[in-house]
Amino acid sequence: MSIFLDKNVMMQSKKSTYIIAEMSANHAGDINRAKEIIYAAKESGADCIKIQTYTPDTMTIDCNKSWFNIDNGTWCGENLYSLYKKAYTPWEWQGELKEEANKIGIDFLSTPFDKTSVDFLEELGVNFYKIASFELVDIPLLKYVASKGKPIILSTGMATLGEIEDAVNTIRSNGCNQIVLLKCASAYPAITDQMNLVTMRNMGEVFNVPVGLSDHSMGSVGAIAAVAMGARIIEKHFCISRQIENPDSVFSMEPDEFKNMVRDIRQVELAIGQVKYGPTEQEHSNIAFRRSIFVVDSIKKGEKFTENNIRIIRPGYGLAPKYYDKVIGCVALRDIERGEPLTLNLFGEL
What we know:
Blueprint: E1 18-22, H1 31-43, E2 48-53, H2 56-59, H3 80-87, H4 91-104, E3 107-112, H5 115-124, E4 129-131, H6 139-146, E5 152-155, H7 161-173, E6 179-184, H8 198-207, E7 211-215, H9 221-228, E8 233-237, H10 255-272, E9 292-295, E10 310-313, H11 324-327
Parallel strand pairs: 1-2, 1-8, 2-3, 4-5, 5-6, 6-7, 7-8
Antiparallel strand pairs: 9-10
């Protein structure tokens, strides 16, 4: 069962970042490779494997008019229908892929793109949904997905604040209060210096929801920075090898890269820790190297402490420096050798 269902408000009480490996088109039309990707994602530390549920005909129409042709970016020169034909995951695979995921203990998630795909995924028994950035403005789709009463992860690439507000209000008013918003740069690959990750944190404050990052950039800098800023979900495209050509391979992570990202994210989580003042366990032994008050010139019983015979120096075995001014002028109760720490039993009341 998905960890999202463990809490009333998903992710709120979950300390560790939920990491999604997005398969997308990286199976390159081979179900065995799709299964291999599931196993590799689990081995690389992913909590969840994600696919996409659509067909070319549920996405667009087979038309060669200029509006349906892509004239820039990674897929420049492609026709929408032919691109989706290359990239889609056959629906007859998806039950089998879900079984493979269940078998090895990795969550299974999919992105629906129309009502028929939602109905299909309901029959498949998915526990939660992901909505792609491009579908954030499809209000009828959001209504339908929300009506299923399952948690929704919503990517927000390209979206204005008003569009996100419309989407969130639609989801909430149609029966779903478990929402995570993902900051996303809808470019393939995305440029790290245009991520504007502070927007992610602001979305959490504005809409009072957990937030995360759907990251299409190369490398893991954006993902690690997002976790440090409070991301509860990281989504990254995942492949066996970028040498296996498909529409998504050029901006996907290979297993070793993904594994290193997960390792760094887990280390960042440890570094974030919790609110704690005072010495940590590893600092305790270094308290001795703080400054304290020491006798720096031998003193006879009855002599006064002066600026010449006591000083604030390292190490920290003597009286705390804050007492220095009060100690000046006090009388020694016994002979004190040079190099002894000044302690309360060596003089009268302050």
